[in-house]
Design brief:
With 173 residues, the protein is α+β, with helices and mostly antiparallel strands. It is 36% helix and 16% strand. β3 (52-58) and β4 form a beta hairpin.
């Protein structure tokens, strides 16, 4: 175990999911969220405060997030691993989600007031705000997760790495 934390257990296998093109496991995300919260001197809120629905989407072995913002009538597409081919497929999946929501919201039982217009998610604009891309940051995240103060095993991990490195070097005598 490389990182000991009350919220997750970080092993080499978990950290290897930070390699480019690999699916990141939940322990990595939990530790990152814990690091961000612990480093802060104030409460940080990363998601919009308006009435929204958060919908994680899975497409072609890749996760991305769609935020259905009902007050702004927007479908917000957030992807930290953008690619031109994945973008087209992801947008197609978002449109399918919007049509599904239209069918779901067709039932007037969802509306507290009969005078409220029916919500048509398929008419919402798809917005793609700039978000940090994960490829350049993965190695930095792995190093921070292992070496920062939130890891109770950091000194043992550093010592094990040094011993491993020393086993490959020749003593100059």
């Amino acid at each position: 175990m490389l990182v000991s934390n009350p919220h997750c257990a970080m092993t080499r296998k978990a950290l290897r999911t930070l390699e480019p093109g690999k699916q990141i496991v939940d322990d990595v995300l939990i530790l990152l969220a814990r690091m961000l919260a612990f480093d802060s001197t104030r409460l940080q809120w990363y998601l919009p405060t308006a009435f929204v629905i958060y919908c994680p989407m899975w497409c072609d072995n890749h996760w991305f997030l769609v935020i259905i913002d009902l007050s702004r009538k927007q479908l917000v597409y957030l992807d930290s691993l953008r690619s031109p081919t994945a973008r087209s497929k992801s947008r197609h999946q978002i449109r399918k989600l919007a049509i599904f929501l239209d069918d779901l919201l067709d039932d007037r039982a969802w509306y507290a007031n009969a005078d409220i217009d029916k919500i048509e998610c398929s008419e919402f604009d798809i917005k793609e705000p700039e978000v940090a891309q994960q490829l350049p940051e993965r190695m930095c995240l792995a190093i921070d997760m292992v070496l920062k103060y939130h890891n109770d095993n950091r000194m043992e991990t550093v010592e094990a790495a040094l011993n491993y490195w020393r086993s490959f070097t020749i003593a100059p005598w």
